[in-house]
Structures are given as C-alpha cells and as structure tokens.
Write a structure and sequence with these properties.
mainly alpha, Rossmann fold, 3-stranded parallel sheet, single chain
Length: about 170
C-alpha cells in the first residue's frame, strides 16, 4: 500500500518572487511544526511571467531569514490552468490575483478551490490583503513575513481536519 498523496496548497501573487514564495516557505515550516510535513505540501506561482525562473527577491529572502525561515530553492513560475487539477487549495495574496485566477477557472469546482489569504487574517489585522512589498524597503518585507506568519497558523488550524480526512 502506497502512502497517500499530500494535500497540496498553491500560493499565488503577481511575479512569484515576494509574497507567494514567502507564503510557501512559511506554510511548509508551520506544517512541519504541526506534525503535518508528510501530509501537506505547498508550492507557489505568479499570475504574470515577469520573473519566471528567478529566485525570490533577495530582500524577501533576507526578511525570511531574519524571521528564522530557510529558503528551499524555489524558482518563479506562472500559474497555469492545470494547477486547478494539481492543487487542493489555491490561495491568492490579493484580490487582483484572485480575479486573474478565477478568470481561468474551467468550472465551479476550480473556482471553489480559490480562497484569498485574507480569509485567515486575525481581527487585529488592518490589511485587506497581503501588501506587495516590491517597491518599498526592508520594513515592508518584514511586515509581510510577520503578517503571513500570524495568518499561517490560522490557515493550518482551519485545514488540519480536511488534510487528515483526505490524506490519511
């Protein structure tokens, strides 16, 4: 008997070099901390192809390192329709990327997999989506990492039962 396939989560932003790879890295760390490393796997991509093949932005990697996260070798790629079949949950980082992903949905089942990251923000958050830190300084990158870290625990808690039910 083979092991079940992991529950697959895809994080999406515009260029796949700041927010979505950070979400991928943080999610995988939180999954490991919660004993779900073998049952869940995250990936990330962008809705635009500007940075295809690139490593995450060096400022985001520095912010992740300051927060205690390790880079796992991710390279930017572009969202594709096949991702609807390959992933159980697709999480855009803002409403623009959500709109672009939903425009590619082939049916209601595809659209039902798309849930914005802001759904796991706590009541204390003032942001309505994950802000894009690309044109700002280091503080913006640190703020995104902190926001994703706080939100990832809520995401993990809300999907734990589904992960165990579908993959165990």
């Amino acid at each position: 008997m083979s092991a079940p396939a992991p529950y697959r989560v895809l994080f999406v932003c515009l260029g796949n070099i700041c927010r979505s790879p950070a979400a991928e890295i943080i999610f995988n760390a939180v999954a490991a901390k919660n004993g779900l490393a073998g049952l869940v796997k995250a990936d990330s991509c962008g809705t635009a192809s500007y940075h295809t093949g690139s490593k995450p932005d060096h400022r985001m990697l520095a912010a992740l390192e300051r927060a205690g996260y390790s880079y796992g070798g991710h390279r930017a790629r572009t969202f594709r329709r096949a991702d609807f079949s390959d992933f159980d949950l697709i999480i855009p980082q803002d409403e623009y990327n959500e709109r672009d992903i939903l425009a590619l949905a082939r049916n209601e089942a595809d659209a039902a997999k798309v849930r914005g990251m802001w759904q796991w923000f706590g009541a204390e958050e003032t942001e309505s989506s994950v802000p894009d830190p690309y044109y700002g300084g280091p503080a913006g990158f640190d703020a995104v990492v902190a926001l994703l870290t706080r939100s990832m625990e809520k995401l993990m808690e809300s999907t734990k039962d589904e992960i165990r039910r579908t993959k165990c």
